[in-house]
Write a structure and sequence with these properties.
- Helix content is 0%, strand content 50%.
- The chain is mainly β and 119 residues long.
- The mean pLDDT is 95.
Length: 119
């Protein structure tokens, strides 16, 4: 069982930066692939970024490539999302999620943190 809790959201002006954190409980945190997702009002949830258990492989959605960076600190059971050059279209609720090695399904989800980017 893994419990996830996001933090770091808020209101930021366009062009600014935020760093989201997702703290996890559970002794097997380091074995999970972790992802950040977001969902804006009236839109489907989309994957923002993903990082494998040892942080060797990362993936980014096209809309955030070059602006966002995902990282993890397994010693602190935490995954981060550094968001730079924020745009109003980045406004959404951001969720972190975990999936087991070899699985495609994210089975643990956090409650989400709101990010609002103003003009």
């Amino acid at each position: 069982q893994v419990q996830l809790e996001e933090s770091g959201g808020g209101v930021i002006e366009a062009g600014g930066s935020l760093r989201l954190s997702c703290a996890a409980s559970g002794q097997t945190f380091s074995t999970y692939t972790l992802g950040w997702f977001r969902q804006a009002p009236g839109k489907e949830r989309e994957v923002v970024a993903r990082i494998t258990s040892r942080g060797v492989i990362t993936y980014y959605g096209d809309s955030v490539k070059g602006r966002f960076t995902i990282s993890r600190d397994n010693a602190k059971n935490t995954v981060y999302l550094q968001m730079n050059s924020l745009k109003p279209e980045d406004t959404a609720v951001y969720y972190c999620a975990a999936r087991r090695f070899g699985s495609l399904d994210y089975i643990y989800w956090g409650q989400g943190t709101q990010v609002t980017v103003s003009l």
